[in-house]
Amino acid sequence: MRAVSFASARAYPRARVETPIDEWTEVLGALSLATDLANGHDYEKTLRSCVLAVRLAEAMGYGEGELRDVFHASLLRYVGCSSFAHEEALLFGDEIAARKAYATVDPRRVGQIWRASGEAVQAEPSAVRRALRRGSSLLRAPASLRDLIASQCEVGMRFAARLSLGAEVTAALGQIHERWDGAGGPTGLQGEQLAPVARVVQVAHLAELVHQRLGLEAAVDVIGQRGGSALAPEACDAFTTRARELLSPTESAWDDFVQVGLRFPVIDAERTLDEVVEVFADLVDLSSVHTLGHSRAVAHSATKGGEHLGLSAEELVDLRRAALLHDLGRLAVPASVWNKREPLTASDWERIRLHAYQGARILARAPSLARVAAIACADHERCDGSGYPKTVDASALPPAARILAAADVHCALLEDRPHRPAHSPSRAEAELRHEAERGRLDPTAVEAVLGCRPRAARRDASLPAQLTAREAEVVSWVARGETNKEVAGRLGISPRTVGHHLAHAFEKIGVSTRAALALFAVEHDLVAAPDE
After folding, report:
1. Alpha-carbon distance 328 to 310, whole Å?
2. Each residue of 59-74: pLDDT tens digit?
3. Residue 304 predicted with pLDDT over 60
4. Which entry of 75, 261, 331, 437 is 20 to 30 Å from 255 by CA?
């Protein structure tokens, strides 16, 4: 069967320059587009900021090793952005709109917070009242802001460590919300305590954001005003005196990124493309407490199904990567939509359907992911033509896409969703076979997936970080957003006892936020499908 193609030159523009940038860097750059979507940024904002940061650091006399760290820290600047989405959605509703509105705000300026609150929602009386209440909540509840900052930093640092990007990059991602005057977070570092890499990254990302929204003069004004307060004065001075040169317009942000990336090829022979793919899979899943570990579970199920059906080693690699990235476009849709308990509106459905298109758009940027994209972006198609985004039928779906679709549906049925609890394994099996009988899923793929045991949560003696079995249970449910009282009712213990177990777990793992706890739980298989 021929593979369905979701990318055309006009719909998903690729780099016009075929440059031999290493595969690892190319994919990291392409997937950074997902964090742009998650923050409501312009397309390729992170790529432009990355190039600007390297140019700025170079103008400041940074050495080659520091430039490499600036390059990677800039690419991953927003990698922890969706980790607090669950809490942000409860506070703001549309957390993507809120991130966009607050992106250029100086949190020490009350007036800027009020204005941003008004921009975060539609301009109607009831919405404005909600916005003002939210702004007031931010001003009166610094604990929420501290948690958001700590979550993004802790998660970003864990991702950087997984990618073996070095101590400087990891440290910089832990300082993205620190301030030169010491009024930032999560630890209140001040002045020279901020890593040189972090100082440049902070200036470059804010300058690029203001430049795109308001123009060159506004970028110079904002950076100049914040020098010595929020931002390092030396970095601000270097930018303001060279702004026109540093922000000179070019035809292609991707081409600029590639040219810079050529200077920093991957030097760690052990670093693999799969590490990048897995990091972004976890990034997507962290955006909702209902999808923790979902992409990993789908990858496990799809790969086992592919093995059962005799796919080649190369096909299995593509299938696993496609399964890990099949929901990449979810980051473009607010968590408030995914987390709805009530029936979705027509507008909600339209946004959800577009996530497959957004995923295709991102993956099309990396030529090395072309085969992966053809599978991943067909995940929501159906054999009877009732799927999306292209509404193609079985004749256009390769075997790997059919396996992935069956694995995705099966894993979703085994997981809690806002509108329903997780299905039992037997009921999930019946539902999956019913989909095959209706002609929506491929019967052969369904049977292959059902013939493989889903990933099970770890509850054995080899638990990580010396967690006890009870602590692991508490971690798995708190990671899903449950309160101590809810966990207590589930486990038949007191809320106070849950609190003790949770405190011990935080100390053993070395994190302080639910988001980082959730990432740890996903990394170590502490969240998985239920037993019968």
Report:
1. 27
2. 999 999 999 999 999 9
3. yes
4. 331
Pair 238, 224: CB distance under 8 Å: no
pLDDT tens profile 491-506: 999 999 999 999 999 9
What is the rounded distance in angstroms from the CA atom of residue 104 to the CA atom of residue 141? 20
Rounded CA separation 285/519 (Å):
9
Give the 3-state secondary structure of 469-482: HHHHHHHHHHCCCC
The C-alpha angle with vertex 295 and arms to 358 and 431, in degrees rounded to 5, equals 100
Within 13 Å of residue 381, how many CA atoms lie on the same side as its CB?
Answer: 27
**What is the length of the chain?**
532
DSSP string, 433-497: HHHHHTTSS-HHHHHHHHTSPPPB---STT-GGG--HHHHHHHHHHTTT--HHHHHHHHTS-HHH
As to burial, measured by CB atoms within 10 angstroms (0-12 exposed, 13-18 middle, 19+ buried), residue 395 is: exposed
How many beta carbons lie within 10 A of that of residue 487, not counting itself? 23
pTM of the model: 0.89
For residue range 35-66, list pLDDT tens digits in order: 999 999 999 999 999 999 999 999 999 999 99
- Cα 149 to Cα 37: distance, rounded to the nearest angstrom: 19
d(CA 174, CA 194): 10
Gap between the Cα atoms of 25 and 75, Å rounded: 10
Phi, psi of 9 (to 5 degrees): -60, -35
- 265 CB contacts (<8 Å, ≥6 apart)? 21, 22, 25
